[in-house]
Amino acid sequence: MTQESCFDAQAAIGPLENPFVLVVEDDISVSGMLVMALRFLGFEVYSVATGNEAIEAVRERRPDVVLLDGMLPDLDGTEVCRRLRVARDYTPVLFLSARTTVEDKCHALAMGGDDYVTKPFDIFEVGARIRALVRRAQGPGMVRGADRGAAAVSSSSRLRVAGIELNHDTREAWLHGEPVPLSATEFDLLSVLMRNAGQVITKAQILDTVWKHDFQGESGVVETYVYYLRRKLGDSGRSLIRTVRGVGYMVHADTAEAEN
Q1: Contact status, residue 104 vs residue 111, Cβ threshold 8 Å
Q2: Is the pTM here over 0.85, yes or no?
Q3: Which residue of 24, 198, 211, 254 has the fewest C-beta atoms within 10 A of its own C-beta?
Q4: How many other β-carbons are positioned within 10 Å of the β-carbon of residue 252?
Q5: Around Cβ 222, how many Cβ atoms within 10 Å?
Q6: d(Cα 124, Cα 111) in Å, to the nearest integer?
């Protein structure tokens, strides 16, 4: 994506407030460049150099997004993300790493990461992805073009489907009363499927609703996140999230209800 197209896309969806980004990077030159460039792009920025500092800064400063290096002097970036999720902190995490293998990317996402960009990077793409995460964290609504399902009440703060419950105010999830730690992207994907319970949602609709305008990643990202959701929900038999081959996914609405 060119610089011009990034700016055009941002203009088309309207301006966002100045999101607060926590930069976690131990290389002083890279950190300084990121801070300067992100401020130029309209972000508020604070930087730290270690994993332990990052965990403390997330707790005390409450950033909108964490821009997290994969390799830090004290903790691996994936361990930082894992500890945040264990502590039930679901601040969106964008990994910025020199590790480029598919295994590294999948591991980072499995630990609760929401997006992954490899070094060297384009700062305009990083900025676009940060804004996409901020929008995503605000919570998705109904899929465009889909009819309202049995459980769909767009103003509801709680949603229940087949033993799964979501609280959109606190962004917490439970399965049969037990808490389920979800990343921001996992929560939004599950919310889209539940709000459209009883309907098949195509991969294109999921990308458009969850990843929105700024997605430039791999085409298999939807399948990857559905796999993560099934694993966390104990859905090895695929009875909760069903694959409609060649089309997309659906959650049955047989036991669905929404609360205000």
Answers
A1: no
A2: no
A3: 254
A4: 15
A5: 21
A6: 26
